[in-house]
Amino acid sequence: MHNPLLGPVVALVIWTLLMLVWLAATRLPALKRAGIEPPPGSRGVDLERAVPGKVNWPAHNYAHLHEQPTLFYAIVLTLVAMGDHMTLNLALAWAYVAIRIVHSLVQATSNVVRVRFALFMLSTLCLAALTLHATISLLHG
Questions:
Q1: Rg of the chain over CA atoms, in angstroms?
Q2: Residue closest to 79 by CA, chosen among 15, 126, 16
Q3: Rounded to the nearest 10 degrees, how much is the dihedral formed by the CA atoms of 87, 88, 94, 100?
Q4: Over the stretch 44-96, which tens digit does the pLDDT of each residue have?
Q5: What pTM does this model have?
Q6: Which end of the chain has fewer CB atoms at under 10 Å, N or C?
Q7: Are 36 and 121 in contact, with CB atoms under 8 Å apart?
């Protein structure tokens, strides 16, 4: 039987891939409408000024999903490796994923920084709690 903590990890990877699809579905048509053919070797960030800012919001979020969530993956996989089965940690992991999904939706649509920051801080608290629990388990294990 698999550790239930793997569920939130898989869910966040799936969400990240969905954001990649959203990024492509918004940016590529915008570039086409603007008559822009990305030159060889160009990166997405090089094309940001060529399209309206809102078109870039899903891309910005996709990049964010490769920043702090890497710590989430590391700490959750650490908890799994330590054999953690605390219901609280499972709830914290799912809360982290749910908050990050809401954060993505806010950033890719309305992009209200105050709301995004509040969501970011809530998800960070979940991550900090998971890290604290892993640390305690490691020290007392």
A1: 18
A2: 126
A3: -170
A4: 888 888 899 999 999 999 999 999 999 999 999 999 999 999 999 999 999 99
A5: 0.95
A6: N
A7: no
